[in-house]
Write a structure and sequence with these properties.
It contains 13 helices and 17 strands. It is of the alpha+beta class and 420 residues long. It is 38% helix and 28% strand. The longest helix has 20 residues. Pfam families: GGDEF (PF00990), PAS_4 (PF08448), PAS_9 (PF13426). This is Sensor domain-containing diguanylate cyclase.
């Protein structure tokens, strides 16, 4: 045996020589420290396999640091690391490392001293590890760490509950694999690269069974010893139940409960957005105001329950004439609004006429078997560049509706066709 190697074998401190992370030499003290069955069983193993997950990033950075030219031949400062032995026991080891040449190639020599001799320290370490493992195993959040290329390096057991995968099925794959929409992942990456961290960032992921869930991500960037971006570390949690509740609350806040269409507030917000878009792009926009004729008579003759049924049938008849890009809302009582983007006055009058005839053709029947029909009055207004606000267009459509009712109802009217 080489005299230098014999000397290393006799040292009471643990000594490892690694190349590209793999163990090339181990002395007897290393075998005993790592509780390996033999020195040969350590050769070829990755030294990082014995480092505790919480210390892996710090350990990797220190090993990289000794390899830079400025550090050549100088060991780094000793530091304590948690390691897990071949038998699964936890050790606290004081480790220092230095860059060397081994068999003509760059290598790292590591020297470690076991600092867990005292039973009190060992007991504290065991308790700490048990607490950490219990917390890690049962936490609802999913811990994860990726490298600079987005490859998942480590993921916590919570991923079983959240995504339905085993951790080893996730590790080694790109985090992007679990996003149903690349835009979600791109938005997350842009935000964290800009700010260095994100908190409660929204997104979605796909479970093993194909279910899409809402997630909330809190993460921060990782850097290597040279200050270069090295990956991302953080947690994410399943917030589908919370998001569904938020969506339901939003629906309740923006929906007319009787007819199922947008309520007044939601419709006017939509109209304001469409108006702003038309003003910015010079695109046509048409607004219809509708009123169910003689609604009070229906209530008085058949009762309020039948009046509600008439309103629901009226709303559905209006929706049946609309495109996906159009919007309809109940403004109050028996008055409704319809928004027609990219629609000229002539086209809007055609839509209004179809609605007029469609509602005339409805045949409704009350609980007593009495049949009756309903009609509507419609006012049509269009966007003008001279408008000061949405209110001007709303006023023209409302005035046109008043004109249609004044002329006898069951008809369409527009101030624009009268030159006003």
């Amino acid at each position: 045996m080489n005299p230098d190697l014999r000397l290393l074998q006799l040292l009471p401190a643990a000594v490892l020589v690694t190349q590209q992370g793999a163990i090339r030499f181990a002395n007897t003290a290393s075998m005993e420290l790592l509780e390996a069955p033999s020195i040969d069983s350590l050769i070829g193993r990755l030294s990082g396999d014995f480092v505790h997950p919480l210390d892996q990033v710090r350990s990797t950075n220190r090993i990289q640091q000794v390899a830079v030219p400025e550090q050549a031949g100088r060991p780094n400062k000793s530091s304590e690391f948690r390691i897990r032995t071949e038998r699964g026991n936890l050790r606290m080891v004081l480790i220092s490392s230095v860059a060397i040449e081994w068999d003509g190639a760059p290598a790292v020599l590591m020297c470690g001293i076991d600092m867990t001799h005292q039973s009190e320290i060992e007991a504290q370490l065991r308790e700490s590890e048990q607490n950490f493992r219990r917390l890690f195993e049962n936490m609802q959040d999913v811990y994860y760490r990726t490298d600079a290329q987005g490859i998942v390096q480590h993921v916590g057991p919570g991923v079983r509950r959240v995504l339905g995968y085993e951790p080893h099925e996730i590790e080694g794959r790109t985090a992007e694999s679990y996003y149903p929409q690349s835009s979600d992942r791109d938005a997350f990456k842009a935000a964290i690269m800009e700010h260095g961290e994100v908190s409660d960032f929204p997104g979605q992921m796909v479970r093993r069974d194909g279910t899409v869930i809402d997630i909330s991500i809190s993460s921060h960037l990782l850097y290597d010893h040279a200050g270069q971006f090295a990956g991302i570390e953080g947690i994410y949690r399943d917030v589908t139940q919370r998001k569904n509740l938020e969506r339901e609350l939003q629906r309740l806040a923006t929906t007319d409960m009787l007819t199922g269409i947008a309520n007044r507030r939601a419709f006017l917000e939509c109209a304001e957005s469409a108006y702003t878009h038309s003003r910015s792009n010079g695109e046509p926009l048409t607004l219809l105001m509708l009123d169910l004729d003689h609604f009070k008579t229906i209530n008085d003759r058949f009762g309020h329950l039948e009046g509600d049924r008439a309103l629901m049938a009226f709303a559905q008849a209006i929706k049946g004439q609309l495109r996906a890009s159009d919007a309809v809302g109940r403004l109050g009582g028996e008055e409704f609004g319809v928004l027609l983007p990219l629609t000229t006055l002539a086209e809007g009058l055609e839509v209004a006429t179809r609605m007029l005839h469609g509602i005339r053709e409805l045949q409704l029947t009350d609980d007593a078997g009495h049949s009756y029909r309903i009609t509507t009055s419609l006012g049509v207004g269009t966007f003008r560049q001279s408008d000061r606000s949405l209110r001007d267009m709303l006023d023209r459509a409302d005035q046109a509706l008043y004109l249609a009712k004044h002329r006898g109802r069951d008809q369409v009217a527009s101030l624009e066709t009268m030159g006003e």
